[in-house]
Design goal:
Structural class: alpha/beta
Strand content: 15-25%
Shape: globular
Strand order of the largest sheet: 2-3-1-4-5-6
Order of helices and strands: EHEEHEHEHEHHEEHHEH
Number of helices: 9
Distance between the termini: 37 Å
């Protein structure tokens, strides 16, 4: 039996969450084109006949401006210390200079088997890809380089087979029917937040956090009450929209995805509340599941 932790790290918007979902074969991480979509470290568990892979999706690396972002960076830092295999995801538009401090830390993790994944290769020609592979070989000479397209699942099966070959021997860390370490409520939070990211612009979606206040599962329906927190009254007005039209749209879209996730009819109630400056308030951040021990 083989088992191990495979942690996915890299800059924002390089396709880490798309890769996570492709590797796990389920929609574990929410995906949008906006930076900072992933805020937490999310595990996805894959079981084979003789192996268990525990994948971790992490927030994109960034220099923090808020205590919330300090916690997000903490998740990305912790992923360097407890991995059996480290997947450093870059893409055809990414730069080594962007958040170079993190890449320097990756270089020092010589005790961890590191694979550099050049994602979105369907967007460039072969000549440019070969140049990128050479560049990354020089930057991380001990790492393996895998060109992939997570969205089109090109190279993903080959990558999975290789990951299995690198796993250490050991017993499973989780039950064989487990898919993730997160509770059901977490995915309701994330689905609603995804719809907010997709439906609002500028600062509004980044100033929002979602928390499920009630989750009651009955025979034929799940009744959910979710609180959408924002930082200012003006943001609350934008989220609700004229006559409540905007928040209704978010609720309808979220409910459909939540029903698909649970395979059951859902009644979803959403309430918008102002929680001033929550992104810098430690007590509030801890209640939302952020860890604040990291200092860099």
């Amino acid at each position: 039996m083989k088992s191990g932790f495979v942690n996915i790290v890299g800059n924002p918007n390089v396709g880490k969450s798309t890769l996570m979902n492709a590797l796990v074969g389920e929609r574990i991480s929410i995906i949008t084109s906006k930076a900072q979509t992933t805020r937490h470290r999310i595990m996805g568990i894959v079981n084979g006949d003789d192996f268990q892979i525990v994948y971790s999706d992490t927030p994109g690396v960034l220099k923090p401006n808020y205590k919330m972002q300090e916690a997000m960076l903490g998740f990305s830092m912790s992923a360097l210390t407890d991995a059996d295999v480290l997947l450093y995801v870059t893409d055809t538009q990414d730069s080594m200079e962007k958040n170079a401090f993190y890449l320097e830390k990756v270089k020092k993790m010589d005790h961890i088997h590191t694979i550099v994944l050049i994602n979105k290769i369907d967007l460039i020609d072969q000549q440019r890809l070969e140049a990128m592979v050479d560049m990354w070989h020089k930057e991380l000479p001990d790492a393996e380089i895998f060109p992939i397209s997570a969205l089109n699942k090109f190279g993903v099966d080959t990558l999975i087979k290789h990951i299995v070959s690198l796993l250490p021997e050991g017993e499973p860390y989780f039950d064989r029917d487990a898919l993730t370490d997160r509770p059901e409520r977490f995915f309701v939070d994330e689905i609603i937040r995804e719809k907010i990211l997709l439906n609002y612009d500028k600062e509004v979606p980044y100033a929002v956090e979602v928390a499920v206040e009630e989750f009651k599962e009955e025979a034929n329906i799940i009744r959910i009450r979710a609180i959408i927190y924002c930082e200012r009254d003006s943001q609350k007005g934008i989220i609700i929209g004229h006559g409540g039209a905007s928040i209704r749209k978010v609720g309808i879209e979220a409910r459909k995805d939540i029903e698909a996730f649970f395979g059951k009819k859902v009644f979803l109630e959403t309430v918008v509340r102002v929680e001033k400056d929550w992104r810098n308030r430690e007590q509030k951040l801890r209640s939302f599941g952020y860890q604040l021990e990291h200092k860099d």
